[in-house]
Amino acid sequence: LFSINRALVDGGRVAIRVPYKEGLLNYSPHVGYGHEYGHLRSFDKTILKIYMRQAGFRTTSIHLDGFGLGMPREWVLKSRLGMICLISLQKYVEHNFDHRSDVIDLPWLLRDTFFRSVEVVVIAEKVTDLSDEMLNKDHV
Question: How far is 137 from 13, CA to CA, in rounded Å?
Fold first, then answer.
């Protein structure tokens, strides 16, 4: 974030996507994760706003994203009705949308009820050059 801040002029904008409340143990070789790299950190809206402010940005927008058919909420998996709805939604998306990832185009209430987000997106604007005063402020 500090490097991005230095690269931008005052008023410059940045858009960042990061993992949202992700269980990082999923990336452990002990659970069968077979890739060399995985996420090292996970974020929520509050901490991401704090980090942006500390780095000299003003958050202009923050929202959840990264919904997918393969990421149902826990209650859906534990409920017979939830599973019936999930299967129906999967068929609907596959039949009516160009790609499975277009689940994001479902009405927000339906999407947010049945699926969990895996990303948080922040759009922010550089408001000042970094200074010791900015870094030492209480931003909570």
Answer: 22
* This prediction's pTM: 0.72
What is the DSSP code string of 19-60? EBS--GGGG-GGGT--SS------B-HHHHHHHHHHTTEEEE
Q: What is the pLDDT of residues 79-104, one digit of tens each?
A: 999 999 999 999 999 999 998 878 88
Question: In whole angstroms, what is the distance from residue 66 CA to residue 15 CA?
Answer: 15
Looking only at the bridges linking them, the beta strands covering 57-65 and 119-126 are: antiparallel
Dig out the tokens for 9 from the structure: 């002029």
Grouping H, G, I as helix, E, B as strand and the rest as coil, residue 73 is coil
Alpha-carbon Rg for the chain in angstroms: 19
